[in-house]
Amino acid sequence: MPFVLDASAAAAWCFPDEQAGAADRAFDRLTTDEAVVPHLWWFEIRNVLIVNERRGRVTAADTTAFLGDLGRLPIRVDANPGERLVLALARRYRLTVYDAAYLELAVRLDAPVASLDRALNAASRSEGVGIV
Which of the ends of the chain has fewer CB neighbours closer than 10 A, N or C? Predict the structure, then answer.
């Protein structure tokens, strides 16, 4: 069964000091299931990496290696969000539109969410969406 992978959970795989149970469970789940992400995930992951290059936490080579590793995982990008539902969820739960895009995808696919974001997880539970 596919699950929705938030950038916060995937980015944690790059930083050993940020490891969390949800991120580990999401990574383990990729051995049997596909992750699905909204198109903005591509940008979010790269932004996290470039910001952390600037902070000296990773090097350009680390970024390249991590992106190569991500590219080998069963992660599918969804480019067809439901605009009305994204906006409705953002309003209902006071989420950013970015976080609402993850929740909309989970609702549409009837799939659980893997995230380290407390607001997204709370909104997911309220919406009846499972948490990885």
Answer: N
pTM reported for the whole predicted model: 0.94
Q: Is residue 129 within 8 Å of residue 106, measured between CB atoms?
A: yes
Domain boundaries, the chain: 3-126
Distance of CA 5 to the CA centre of its chain: 4
| Dihedral (CA of 97, 117, 70, 103) sign | negative
Please determine, looking at this structure, whether the domain spanning 3-126 carries the CATH number 3.40.190.10.
no
Alpha carbon distances (Å) from 6 to 43, 62, 85: 12, 21, 18
Q: Is 7 exposed, middle or buried (0-12, 13-18, 19+ CB in 10 A)?
A: buried
Going residue by residue through the chain (132 aa), what tens digit of pLDDT does each one get? 899 999 999 999 998 887 778 899 999 999 999 999 999 999 999 999 999 999 999 999 999 999 999 999 999 999 999 999 999 999 999 999 999 999 999 999 999 999 999 999 999 999 999 999
